[in-house]
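Whether sequence alone determines local backbone shape is best considered at the level of individual chains. Part of our work consisted of pairing the sequence of a single chain with a tokenised description of its backbone. This step matters because it turns folding into a mapping between discrete strings. For completeness, the protein is quoted in full, as a sequence line and a line of structure tokens:

_____
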Amino acid sequence: MQAPQHPQEETRLSRLRSCGVLDTPREHRFERLVFIAAQVMKAPIAKINFVDADRLWSKAYVGTSTRQFARDISFCSFTILQKDMLVVEDTRVDPRFVSNPLVTGAPFIRFYAGVPLFSDDGLPLGSLCVIDRQPRRISNDQIRTLKLLAKEAEDLVYPVEYEIAAAD
């Protein structure tokens, strides 16, 4: 299986590398976000991933010890092609993933929900995702929460400076 490419792949990769997040140590501020995501979803695995040219690299993760693996088997490679969240309620019936080695073998992924993480100029860099070994549905509240957590992750990569108006 070959991972799908973003239409602006070279520019996207350049932007990803320029943000300086790849191959950096784990950080509590990212780890807190994946912990909250796992708790909200009651899911065993949550990750903040960045999609490099040939690999998926995890900045933060809970419920797994795998920090990187081949992009070709990455669910997040599909997430970065989305403008919005990618939800796969049962991987065993989705033709994109039914033969994926992460579905047919360990960790036996059955559910995936990923929110794309964008650069400050709108290019997708990676995702905040939750994974379960059981098929499931996701509630509207869970969707909203995951999207908010993804925005927080983006702000950690590209801090936004807010101007606070002075009180008159």
The first helix runs from residue 9 to 18. Residues 46 and 62 are 5 Å apart (CA to CA). Strands lie at 45-51, 55-62, 68-70, 86-88, 111-118, 124-132.
